[in-house]
Design brief:
The protein is of the alpha/beta class. It is 33% helix and 11% strand. It is built from eight helices and six strands. Strand 5, helix 7 and strand 6 form a beta-alpha-beta unit. 39% of the residues are buried. The mean pLDDT is 94.
Length: 227
């Protein structure tokens, strides 16, 4: 399979694309599509996080579990939705925390986070696809093998990254990261079910920028404006 992905990632991950698990994963996606199954995001956006933030640009990793499974919501960036789609509850809680942490006003009807991706925030989901209306339906088809390798390679080949892990699922990835080289920030998931248990008040956005500046890297402008 010729994966359309930015050159830095393609070089780093070229061996993964020839592994049996990845070939089987691609075949399964083809079978589902041929049987008229609906998969999100669209094929051209499956690797959107990689194409919006090439390997050499990554400064921050925000890990999600899997894409949104409603029509039109997923576009390959964790927690983000395309222009014209109302921000889901978890993203609204992220906005609330940014406002409390940094004192900047965030939109309530705009959830496209590409502005973060362009600054080096790698918005990675652990599974890159999902069946329509079935959360976590592609968690077991091989994507986790692939994205675990992505996290490992980021940890091994870069320095002074910030890994933001929200929720118990994301925290399991801690073992893939060299904490002597990188900052890992942990908190409950921003979902309405758990945000009040420690996500709200975590100050991950200011902590990220403090760490980046301490290591002579440009901070992230977290403010999102409608465009």
């Amino acid at each position: 399979m010729d994966v359309k992905i930015k050159s830095g990632w393609k070089q780093l991950l070229k061996n993964e694309f020839t592994q049996d698990y990845f070939i089987q994963l691609v075949e399964l996606l083809h079978v589902e599509q041929e049987s008229k199954g609906i998969i999100y995001p669209p094929g051209s956006l499956i690797f959107n996080a990689f194409n919006k933030t090439d390997f050499d640009q990554v400064k921050v990793v925000i890990l999600g579990q899997d894409p949104y499974h409603g029509a039109g919501e997923a576009h390959g960036l964790s927690f983000s939705v395309p222009k014209g789609i109302k921000p889901p509850p978890s993203l609204l809680n992220i906005y609330k925390e940014i406002e409390a942490d940094l004192g900047v006003k965030m939109p309530r009807n705009y959830g496209n986070l590409e502005a973060w991706a362009k600054q080096g925030v790698f918005l990675l989901n652990a599974a890159l696809t999902v069946k329509a209306n079935l959360a976590n339906s592609h968690a077991g088809i091989g994507w986790h093998n692939f994205t675990n390798k992505v996290i490992q390679k980021l940890s091994e080949n870069k320095e002074h990254l910030v890994f933001i892990l929200w929720g118990n699922f994301a925290k399991e990835k801690l073992k893939l990261i060299d904490t002597t080289k990188h900052l890992v920030l942990l908190a409950p998931h921003p979902s309405p079910l758990s945000a009040h248990k420690g996500f709200l008040g975590c100050k991950h956005f200011s902590k990220t920028n403090e760490y980046l500046m301490k290591n002579r890297l440009d901070p992230i402008d977290w403010q999102i404006t409608e465009s």
